[in-house]
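ok trying again, last paste got cut off:
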Amino acid sequence: MDLTSYAELAVLLVNSGHALDSLEEARRFLAAAGRERDAARLTRADLAILSELRHELIAVFAAAARQDEQGAVERLNALLTLHPVHPQITRHDGHRWHLHLTEGGRLSGEYAAGAVMGLTALVTGLGVDRLGVCQADPCRRAYLDTSSNRSRRYCSERCASRANVAAYRARRRDAARVPGR
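nice, full thing came through this time. structure:
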């Protein structure tokens, strides 16, 4: 079982922004994220649970970004209690039998159990510092640092490029202000 893909559910939820404000927006967001099957199953009850979970996951990533390892772990432990994991063998979309993590029969339960367990596995296996918040202003999107040297600082290549260009321009501006150059 690939728990990184479950951890990516957490990132998806954290980065959903206002997409969880309405059922229609959430369905469009899930479909755009390649989760059409989930979009069709989403209910208003799921939406409320996912919205609350999103706020909790944002707090986990924020604690990790502050290098508050204890705080991130305490929040994950609280989420593990709130969203207990029930493994289930399943087969779908032409795939072989495989393990899914679930909590009850609702879509929100599957997302909650998967996201929390995925982050927990990542944190216990690789460390809290693998949870990141984009350093590009004003982005603040979450990401998972799966690089071999723990060097990731941005959520995307676009943000990395934007930050590098801004830093270059700032250096040129500062150099132009130095007298005698």
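cool. The mean pLDDT is 90. The radius of gyration is 19 Å.
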